[in-house]
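Structure Section — protein described below
Tokens — whole-number codes for backbone shape
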Amino acid sequence: MKRGISAILSLLLIAMFVSALMGCGADIKAENEKLKTENTNLKSDNDKLKLEVQNLKEEIQKAAEKEATIGSLTAENEALKKQVEELKVQLAKKKK
């Protein structure tokens, strides 16, 4: 008799435990799916940001090249201005 009651109580406890786990399982699965979706979105955002960083690096490189070109052209312009001034002086001397 005691064995029967022990078996029934054991089965009842096991059934309660299993039903408790099954109830939580749906919530855990839903949360897991939500996290998977969020992870996928974050990876996509990360890829977009990496591409944007690469594009910005390229733009910075192009800007640096343009700045170097501007510096070179400015120096050349100054040299040409000096030549023009020297030629003006030479012309003025020849006219005298």
Summary: Residues 1-96 form one domain. The mean pLDDT is 89.
